Amino acid sequence: MAVVETASRVDIDRVLGEPDRGRKAAQLQHLAQQFRITVLDILHEKGTGHWGGAASAAELLVSLYFDALNVRPDEPLWADRDRLVVSKGHASCMLYTVLANRGFFPAGELSTFRQLNSRLQGHPCMHTTPGVDMSTGSLGHGASVALGMALSARVLRKIWWSYVLIGDGDLNEGQTWEAIMAAAKFKPPRLVALVDYNKVQLDGPSDEIMPMDPLADKLRAFRWNVAPAVYDGHSVADIFESFEWIRRQQDWPAAVIYKTHKGRGVSFMEDNAFWHGAVIDDASHATARAELLATLAELEAKL
Amino acid sequence: MAAAGISMREAFGQALVGLAGSHPEMMVLDADVSASSRTVLFGKQYPDRFFNVGVAEANMIDIAAGMATCGLRPVVNTFALFITLKGADQVRNIVCYNNLPVVLAGTYAGLSDSFDGASHQSVLDVAIMRAMPNMTVVVPADNVEVRQALEAALRRDGPTYIRICRNPTPVLFEDAAPLEIGRIRKLRDGADLTIAVCGIPTYMAIEAAGRLAAAGISVDLLEVSTVKPIDEAALLESVRKTGKVLTVEEHTVVGGLGGAVAEILGRRAPARMDFVGVPDCFAESGPYMELLSKYGISTQEIESRARQLVEGVAA
Q1: Chain B nearest-CA residue for A78
Q2: For A144, which of B66, B74, B98 is closest by C-beta distance?
Q3: Is residue B230 part of a domain?
Q4: pTM for the whole structure
């Protein structure tokens, strides 16, 4: 299949080596949009997968893997690496696209997503996909697992960071709140929850299905150190600011809430629960692709 | 058979302390039952390696899984019923799917939390754990085996479920060869009938086999401490000789040791079978031994079912 918009190696190396934060943010913004197109194409061709949550997490995953995380794509199990648990495992196609382009496995493999004999399972599987730190899919596990990783760092006197990317569905799960309570008890350093707060879940708007507001207040009441600002999870510049806030913290665990939009980038898919996991038909694909390309051109002009 | 001094849970708690020095990567987690599971012994001596997460079993199991991905060897402790049911999704999707070296120590198993009643009694844990890919299921029969099971589990690269009794029970294997995961222990040679037993009823099966011998029925007695993966070769060797099998376990007759044995024999060596275990029902509160007896697990029951099998009388 023709995944024409996947970034070139030259682009990737330039971005990783970019010393200027502003320029890097613009480049990653552009990269995230390229990845959206890749994901849209894959999901359309396969006729299966989750667009909404994948598009919602594009800038966050790109910023993490191309900026924040200390990882070695040629040594994915490097013991001292930073960990990221993508607890909203249905964002798998975006995660795979980011990992492949970061160098964990060949981008050509992306077209095998959800196929028989593929390393790219419907939801992330740590044993088949290089770079995946924890298998996810069943919601509610990620915060506990990341807590275990952060506690391990403390026991082993290591300084890796343990991040968990949490979605609305995760926040519905009781286990997430068990983990939130326990993290506040044990307070392991460098444990960070990143909330991809698009407020739409499979069945509809979270305010109808299971309201989570006031989320920051809830987390603070559970004794988490919550970033005072709500960041725009679709602005890499904003995400960079949140990373700077995280780096300045001494009180653990820490949480950052990002305002995001499910299905971001396609007008008729944004904030629409239907596109959580609907099959992307030919007509929708053509319209969506044109919209994504138009935005990509705008971002390119800013580089 | 030596009378038990301490309970199996106490022996397990002591084993954790005993192995702490030689296994610095071992972490112990508990869900607010450390005084019962006896992990309190470890927690007092190694507070930096002990994590009491409160009454939150699911969270505990996934924290342990996260630790296991980082090179640690967590031992998760709570009541068997709660590990296998409250933690079933975590055991399946995180621990087993990723084949992580987590030891799941299910205490108060079987009917051993006898007075607390059906809400706490765990007679389906083996069936559930056995259905999880990558899981190893060990059912020790005494305090010696529970220590050895822990030591062996810590050497494994995947998940291990260890089933632990709440109460003092006879010590059987003080002077025997150590428990080996995946190996059946032959306790008695016989030709008329195979009895395959695991866990606490092992001492009952030993007694029953003795009585049967006195009555002229010779029992090939197998202690199946690892229900999964089961020692297929030793089982087949015995059944090809006897042609009849009685399984004995402190577990529902649905899907436990009896099921594991039947699955193999059905394919490889069909044999007459019967099952001693808890019927498909909820039990109740009461003293442990009387409860076992009321719900079908006793020396007499084993003896009587064995006779019926040998004599060809329908159970």
Answers
A1: B70
A2: B66
A3: yes
A4: 0.97
Q: Which amino acid is it at B249?
A: E
Q: Which of B25, B51, B59 to mutate to test binding with chain A, by most A CBs within 10 Å of its CB? A: B59
Residues of B in contact with A182 (CB under 8 A): 53-54, 56, 59, 63
Residues of A with CB under 8 A from a CB of B: 79, 83, 85, 125-127, 133-135, 137-138, 140-141, 144-153, 155-156, 162, 174-175, 178-179, 181-182, 185-186
Q: Could you tell me if B223 and B118 lie in one domain?
A: no
Looking at residue B94, what DSSP letter applies?
Answer: I
Work out the end-to-end distance of chain B between its first and last CA atoms, rounded to an integer number of angstroms: 30
Instruction: Name the residue range of residue B79's domain.
Output: 8-163
- Domain harbouring B116, CATH code: 3.40.50.970
**pLDDT given at position A12:** 85
Final residue of a structural domain among B97, B129, B163: B163
B53 falls within a domain:
yes
Answer whether B171's CB lies under 8 Å from B142's CB: yes
Does residue B168 fall inside a structural domain? no
What are the boundaries of each domain within chain A? 9-301
Do residues B22 and B159 share a domain?
A: yes
CB contact under 8 A, B70 and A156: yes
Chain B environment of A140 (Cβ under 8 Å): 58
Cross-chain Cβ contact A149/B69 below 8 Å:
yes
Rg of chain B in Å (alpha carbons): 19
Please list the ranges in chain A whose pLDDT falls under 70. 1-10
The pLDDT value recorded for residue B145 is 98
Identify the pLDDT of residue B5. 87
Instruction: Clarify whether residues B206 and B266 are in a common domain.
Output: yes
Contact list, A149 vs chain B (CB under 8 Å) = 66-67, 69-70
Q: How confident is the model at residue B1 (pLDDT cuts 50, 70, 90)?
A: low
* pLDDT tens by residue, B131-189: 999 999 999 999 999 999 999 999 999 999 999 999 999 999 999 999 999 999 999 99
What ipTM was estimated for this complex? 0.96
Instruction: Name every chain B residue with its beta carbon within 8 A of the beta carbon of A147.
Output: 59, 63, 66
Distance between CA atoms of residues A87 and B120, nearest Å: 31
Kindly indicate the confidence band of residue B3, based on its pLDDT and cuts at 50, 70 and 90: low
A181 CA to centre of own chain: 23
CB contact at 8 A, B167 and B8? yes
A9-301 folds as Rossmann fold (3.40.50)
Q: What CATH number has the domain bearing residue B229?
A: 3.40.50.920
Render the burial of B288-297: b for 16+ CB within 10 Å, e for the rest: beebbbebbb
- What pLDDT is attached to residue A9? 66
Query: What tokens appear for A221 in the block?
Result: 């009441």
Same-domain pairing of B194 and B300: yes
Q: Are residues B197 and B123 in the same domain?
A: no
**CB-CB under 8 Å, B54 with A181:** yes
Q: How far apart are CA A116 and CA A120, in angstroms?
A: 9
Q: Are B32 and B105 found together in one domain?
A: yes
B21 occurs within a structural domain: yes
